[in-house]
Amino acid sequence: QERLKAFGKESDFAPRHVHVVGAGVMGGDIAAVCALRGMKVTLQDQSVERIAPAIQRAARLFERRHKGDARQVRFTLDRLIADPEGHGAARADVIIEAIFEDLAVKRSLFAELERRARPEAVLATNTSSLRLEDIASALQDPSRLVGIHFFNPVPMLPLVEVVEGEATSAEVLRRATGFVRRIDKLPLPVKSAPGFLVNAVLGPYMLEALRCVEEGIAPEAVDAALTAFGMPMGPVELVDTVGLDIAVAAGKALAGSGAEPPARLLKLVAAGKLGRKSGEGYYRWQ
Ligand code: NAD
């Protein structure tokens, strides 16, 4: 516990500009949290129409955090800049990638980011299930890549896994950890391994809950049992929050491609019912 609290505390790294690529569930919230902590943030997405809703969601968070102080909300919003062309990548101290969980797409993005980024900028991926080494090998200098793995919902959850790949340099690790501290999160140092630490534990737990649903127990009953047990959120609601598509992909990555996810999960994903983000998953959210 003491070592965990001290981890990264010594870092004098004080990033002023963070560039986030991907304005989806995670990227939008990561950008918002960095802006709240006083950093300038540029937010890039290949689909321009994804950026505006992310900024609107951030504005609602700023209003809650600044308790309606309109001036503070304005200042914080001014720090969060829509950047569809990705100009911010050339000036940022930290670049965080939170795009689709697709190895080829992430590899080509990082090859481009490496060319554009300042030499001392931290290059970080928020991947949940891809091997860091498989992304890093797309870089001229793989030691620059680190995992900074946030949890959903980002504004509420303090834990962030700082993932050390086989090639990650000590300095990059130190800076990444320092950055996580600067945004008031708790860095958890982990090695690159399937599921890192948290999802390696959570995966089987969530899967077991979905199997109970498969056997005919209502999601509400499963969730009620686990919240009574002391969990802040039931496992089925957690699957809806994470996104059913992400859960399928992460489950495959964790258990190997041979493992079949529960049939109802696959059926919901095929119907576009991806959880909270699409308005329906195991629960209805509208
Ligand atoms: P999402 O689908 O909500 O958002 C991804 C965004 O990336 C989309 O807006 C898309 O337009 C954009 N994008 C895709 N390719 C791009 C490119 N080449 N350039 C610019 N933008 C691009 O996804 P998400 O749930 O936010 O997940 C993003 C990443 O975070 C994934 O790697 C995922 O594994 C990881 N992650 C997700 C969660 C979660 O609970 N959802 C938790 C931790 C980590």
Automatic annotation (TrEMBL):
Residue ranges of domain 3-hydroxyacyl-CoA dehydrogenase NAD binding in the record: 17-191
Residues of the 3-hydroxyacyl-CoA dehydrogenase C-terminal domain: 195-285
Signal peptide bounds: none
Entry's family note: In the central section; belongs to the 3-hydroxyacyl-CoA dehydrogenase family.
This protein's name: 3-hydroxyacyl-CoA dehydrogenase NAD-binding domain-containing protein
Organism the protein comes from: Thauera mechernichensis
